[in-house]
């Protein structure tokens, strides 16, 4: 834990300290706690009905069961193990089991469809998947060993493989903004790098009575490493609750039922709460990340949530690198926050030199939460670095230590709290026999930040409908990433080398959004 009572500058000066050479995340989030206090509450489980309290001892035994079954299936150190589960103790136990045996876990999302699963399974070379009956049906066409809860035998203590801090532990796939999604390979030191940012984004998480929850799925880095694993490592009970989709009333019930004190709310969840004039009492901290919130949202948070919303910044490749912290300093309107203790965050130019003006947001190499590489992709790995810096792909400015986000340098679409890569959707649509070419961009939307918008050129003589192509994507990728709007066009703006100029399509979509808003205002 960060030392309480120090100023921000003092914490920055102290840094993170040295990460131990020998390190395994299974010990950090489970086994070490069992040695200290086996009966300590780890997870408040609402995933299967009435509340069930899971202690660290319970979690260890469940992970032993999973580990034994994986070993019986022939999984060994270095093998990849998929985890296709929603928020649940089994989800946590599956990752812990994989790490303890030296395997590499790969989180998978329940809203993925066949093509999205296939690309990740093939790229990672996955040997087995821990899932449930629903997941088993999704995986039926793949040649994989599937471990279900019903397969697990009585718990028997399982051995821990000795791992170094830099040994691979997990592959988390990016949004696939250019080409197919890339697998960010992270080491066992990853969690140590997340802890400071998680702590300060919750005004020093780990105080007596803290209980942590997020509506974000644990298949993503935001749910898994901004909430679940840091909470377990810090001894803060984490709530596991299934939500098919975000619902304001259900959200409030979860908070009240489990006495949640600390929440990570994605921006879309905050907007939905605000749109329904929700009031939540009893919270101690609220963190949010993924996109800037704006002064009005922060003011609403103070009034309706009773706390200062702390914004944080990061990405799958290097997360929790900057954050606000109301307990340390007053937030600056329009700024994300300051560099998290232990991270050197800067704005650099094309030559990798720090600049006082606008430039590329970058993090100095050596940060523990920084990826090792993109799995089996040395070309993209090399492109991610510029000299001594990892380039985040965003433009920004640093003013008096505060990081201000200017815009994205890529084409990622932020919709409903998800980061969606247009390339994967374009590739999916191009497999339809009636589509000649397609361009996908984000169209500004007041609720979701952006919606996925597709511009499609269809084959001559074909008469496609919007619903045809929406269903095509829903059935193959993920239910949240289908194009909510499709416009059929005669041609797309292209470069001389035949690439779609998304910048022009983005400008067109933005103009359409402004027209939509004007029409709504006229109607009211």
Automatic annotation (TrEMBL):
SUPFAM superfamilies hit by this protein: Acetyl-CoA synthetase-like
Q: Which GO terms fall under biological process for this protein? A: acyl-CoA metabolic process; fatty acid biosynthetic process
Q: Which family does it belong to?
A: Belongs to the ATP-dependent AMP-binding enzyme family.
**InterPro entries, A to Z:** AMP-bd_C, AMP-bd_C_sf, AMP-binding_CS, AMP-dep_synth/lig_dom, ANL_N_sf, Mitochondrial_ACSM
Quote any Pfam family the record assigns. Answer: AMP-binding_C
Q: What is this protein called?
A: Acetyl-coenzyme A synthetase
Enumerate the spans annotated as AMP-dependent synthetase/ligase domain.
31-375
User: Which gene is transcribed and translated to give this protein?
Assistant: acsA_1
Which keywords does the record carry?
ATP-binding, Ligase, Nucleotide-binding
All copies of the AMP-binding enzyme C-terminal domain together span 424-499
Q: What is its EC number?
A: 6.2.1.1
Give GO terms: molecular function aspect only. acetate-CoA ligase activity; ATP binding; fatty acid ligase activity; fatty-acyl-CoA synthase activity
> Domain of life here?
Bacteria
